[in-house]
Design brief:
elongated; 0% strand; 150 residues; mainly alpha; single chain
């Protein structure tokens, strides 16, 4: 059990040293071991000192998941579960400026090569894959259309 403010802050800093965390994640991870008032005070102090930032977490998480090939709907859902609200999501999305249509196309080309609509079974499999990764229907359709240079 974490009984002092210093112990709670130390536990939070150790987690933040490994990777960025949202405030909600830290509350979940440390909450069972610390008094709620102490936890709130410690996290407020870490935010004031710049060690904890939900905006920074949102930007890092978005870049990381986008680089792994996940689409905006999947990333948004994951961020919601980690305590990131719609406003921070929108802000990080605008700052990153990711072209989700081209990202979906790149992912489909790497994963499946050229896809034709003639092979309906394979086309449907590719479409399900992209939708499951969090791309919307328009992005998935764009990804599976032949490129202009083909």
């Amino acid at each position: 059990m974490l009984e002092t403010l210093g112990e709670v802050k130390g536990a939070a800093v150790r987690l933040l040293a490994r990777r960025e965390h949202s405030r909600t994640e830290l509350e979940q991870k440390i909450g069972a071991r610390a008094e709620p008032g102490l936890l709130t005070e410690a996290l407020d102090a870490l935010e004031a000192d710049g060690y904890l930032s939900d905006a920074r977490f949102a930007a890092v998480y978005l870049r990381s998941k986008a680089a792994q090939g996940f689409g905006p709907m999947r990333i948004r859902g994951d961020m919601g579960r980690k305590g990131i609200g719609a406003e921070l999501w929108q802000q990080s999305l605008e700052e990153e400026g990711i072209d989700w249509f081209e990202q979906a196309r790149d992912l489909a080309r790497r994963r499946f090569g050229a896809v034709t609509q003639e092979d309906r079974k394979h086309y449907a499999k590719c479409m399900r894959y992209l939708l499951g990764r969090g791309y919307n229907l328009d992005q998935a359709r764009h990804a599976l259309q032949p490129a202009d240079d083909e």
